[in-house]
Structures are given as structure tokens and as C-alpha cells.
Amino acid sequence: MSHPEQPTPSGTAMPPDESSAGDELTAAIPEPPNPHEADDELGRTVAALTADDIEPAGRRKLLARLVTDVRRRGFAPMFRPRAAMRWMADVVGDVAPHVPVRDRETLLRHFPGLDDDELAERLIRNATRTTAGIGAAGGGVASVEWVATPTLLSAPILLAAETIGVVAVEMKLIGELHEVYGRPVAGTAGQRAAALIQAWSGQRGVNPLVPGVGVATVLGTAARKELQGMLLRRFGRNLTTMGPLLTGAAVAGYLNRRATRNLGEHIRDDLTKTKRRALPN
Q1: Among 101, 93, 260, 240, which Cα is nearest to 175's?
Q2: Does pLDDT of 191 surpass 70?
Q3: 160 CB contacts (<8 Å, ≥6 apart)?
């Protein structure tokens, strides 16, 4: 996976006035020069949002930027449920190759002195904090949106951006847990992305016996339906973000934290069972 530079808290800080996030969400967005540049910008924003060392203000700013990037993709389908899930599956497919998965050596440098299980627990804990932070950031921005009724038209795209950000964090967690337990996701960038999409959709570890294929192939098979179903469940859960005032932030943060922990524990258990089966008797 790519390893873009992670934003530092000082580099992503924003003024205390949270209304600036609402201003970013409702500002006029210029058309990008071409679709490839739009996809690259979207990937960079998502990669930055997956970092686990961002202050709340910086995370709100990144989420607002993600809303901008998603808008550039064209969001009319978000008002038609079936088309919306197909659209989101396409966006996840474009984002997945940009998810910054750290290899085992890098993880051991970042978290020295931990054994495999302790390192896995640390990664799960950090990922839950990150997805909870995304939910809280989305709820904080939504609280601004509730002040001006016409801007509620931004709600679907805000929910889509939040969902895409959470999925990216969880795919990163899946990839890094595989690194921890000695089963790195192999192949080209597209093949690794496809494997992470499949693992996230099925809430299971990557199956090394499945031949590596590209993202386009994965999203053109039955796995696409599984991905869309999971995205629909996550999108529905993120509706809590739109609760009035800051209640949505609290609930969305809690639900994101719980869902990410459940996913991390399922993947960890899957990998440890596979590791035990592989040990000689």
C-alpha cells in the first residue's frame, strides 16, 4: 500500500470556531481538471484521515475536505439508495489502493516492546479511537448544518464521506493485523486493495488461496453485492450523525468505536486460529 505522509496536529489545526467546517462543506466547489486528479486527491485525503494522531479540530478539517473531494465525484446518486451504494462501492474501490498499511518492521518501530497480541490490541484500540473521532467530527459538522435548513441537502454527502473514511480506517486495520501475524497481504497495489475490500466486506481475514485480482474484477463479481450490503449497513448506522446538536456526535462516535472493535477482534481471532493451525504438532 502507499505510505503518504501523515498530517501532524499542528499542520491540520483549525480555528476554534466550528462554523468554519460548515463553511467548507457549503462552499462552491470548482470542477477538477480531470477524473484522475480527483481520484488522487480523494485518496490523499482519505489516507490522511486514517492517521491515529490527529487532534479533533484537524479531523474535522480533513472530513470537510473529504466532503469536498466526494462532491467532485458527483453526488446525485446519493439521493437514490441503490445507485448510492453502487456509487459508494466504486469510491471505496478507488480509495482502497491509497490506504496506508504499515509493514511489520514499521509497526515494531512505532510500538516497541510489544508482542504480537499486545501490538494487535494496540492497533485495534487506535483504530477504534480514529473511527470514533470521525463519527464525532461528522456529528460536530452536522450540528452546524442543522442551524441552516437549506444546507441539510449536504447531509447525504456528509454521511457518505464519513462512511468512506471509516471503511478506510478499518481496511488499514485489517492490513496491519495481517502484518502483525506474519500474513502480509501480497500482490500489486490493486491486488492488495481488492483483498482488503473482500476482507472488510466479509469481516474475515484475507484468504491467501484466492488468486490475486484487481479491484475492478472484485467489484464486478458477487463480492460487489456483499460490499454494497455492508456499506448500506454502515451508511444506515452513520445516520445517527445527523442527530440534533451534538447528540449525533456522541452516538456516532460510540457506534463507530463498537463496530471497529468487533471487526478488529474478528480479524485477530481469524488470524490467530490460522497461525495455530499452521504450527507443527
Answers
A1: 101
A2: yes
A3: 70, 75, 78, 84, 88, 91, 235
- What are the cell numbers at 243? 442527530
Handedness of CA 41, 47, 48, 50 (dihedral sign): positive
Nearest to 98 by CA among 165, 156, 163: 165
- Which residue carries 475492478 as its cell? 216
Name the nearest CA neighbour of 52 among 112, 127, 135, 138.
127
Give tens-digit pLDDT for 124-177. Answer: 999 999 999 888 877 655 544 444 343 444 567 788 888 899 999 999 999 999
Q: Hey, what amino acid is at 186? A: A
- Alpha-carbon distance 187 to 152, whole Å? 42
- Residue identified by cell 501480497 is 186
- In the block, residue with C-alpha cell 505510505: 3
